[in-house]
Amino acid sequence: MTFSRSSDVEGTMIRTIEGQRVEGDLLVKPVLRGEEMALLETHFAAGTRTSMHAHRHESIIYVIRGRLRMTVGSEVHVLGPGDVCLNPRGVAHGIESIEDSLMVEVKSPAPDLDSFLGR
Fold first, then answer.
1. Whole-number Å distance between alpha carbons of 112 and 119
2. Superfamily of domain 6-116
3. Taking the domains of the chain in order of start, what are their residue ranges?
4. Looking at the predicted structure, is the pLDDT value of residue 119 above 80?
């Protein structure tokens, strides 16, 4: 597939990431997947937080709206619209949504999305 429309993609409520519990409402839409990367649209309700976790892939997040507190290793950043953050492979990270937020995330290499989404 070389084209996707977000409005046509069904989202999945995520309850765990890498076996760690998610507190709050986290909706992930796997918008498009290639051989080497995947693009996800992620919606956070205010107050939603992920536990610190690490992946076998790296990811770059770009905030569309809202504010997120991002912890990557020992660094903490508050991100708003237009801000970008890298989650290196194998480095523990976590996100807390300060307000309702939307971000897009590129993951590479592309993880098995069914497993990642808990399907």
1. 10
2. Jelly Rolls (2.60.120.10)
3. 6-116
4. no
